[in-house]
Amino acid sequence: MGYYEILVTYGRDCDDVICFKYKGFLNDSNDIVTQAIELGFLGEEDRHKVKSARSISKHEYRYISEK
What we know:
The chain is of the alpha+beta class. Helices cover 28% and strands 39% of the residues.
C-alpha cells in the first residue's frame, strides 16, 4: 500500500492538498498525478497546476487526513 500527497495551486491565495492511498507502487510524480486523475481526485485540466506530488509515510498520511 502506497500513500501519496499532491499539492495543487489554483492561484496566489488558493492551494489544495490531495492525499490518497493506492494498492500498488507509483514510480514518479507523473504516475501519482495520473493515478489521482483516474481515481477522480483531480481533473486532467488541473494537471498543470500541480506544484508537487510525492510519496508520504503512513504516519504522515494519517496526520494529514485527520485535518
